User: What shape does this take?
Amino acid sequence: MRESRKKRQERAAEVVRRLAKEWPDARCSLHYKTPHQLLVATILSAQCTDERVNQVCKPLFRKYRSPRAFASVEAPELAVDIHSCGYHNQKARSIVGMSRAVLELHGGQVPRTMEELVKLPGVGRKTANCILGEVFGVPSMVIDTHMIRIMNLLGFGKTRDAVKLERELMDLFEPAEWVRLTHRVIEHGRAVCIARRPACARCVLADLCPSAGKTA
Ligand code: SF4
Assistant: This one.
């Protein structure tokens, strides 16, 4: 039977409550001190673990201390420093290009709007949402692989298209919850609702999830 909008909203609110109880301290696991450093770390985190990115960023942020320092290096030189994050040539080009744009177009300050952020080289909607939510406190959802997988399993989205899913979820969840919900879903995806082997038997969402026990 098709779930009514009201029932769906009630189920979504209960999912928010349970994940908040399960993962009260979930937050961005990338280490940074400035908005620009978070942009660099987020670009590096594509197809790479946050743990590896943090390892790489520690010496990187000591070597390049400002957007100007990142803008002054040539991409092939930076690629050597970020080699272990994978896709190093492409990521180096993005970081240098992004840093030059931040410097030349925004006076060295990371812009605060989605429209301006996605114009920076290497910055897509996912990275922009991460910066907006994490640094500037703007309600936003980072639609990563965990969010796509788990929200589809929960029946809150019926698409793997990140932009469409973001729109569907924004309609379902309260804006005040978007940032924390993203972090909690990511934690849940790493520890419980693991890709290809979700641990439904120990999932606090099992009685709310139409996919419980059906994914093996
Ligand atoms: S019940 Fe299973 S499929 Fe549903 S969210 Fe929990 S772990 Fe994932």
Q: What stands out?
A: The chain has eleven helices and no strands. The longest helix spans residues 88-106.
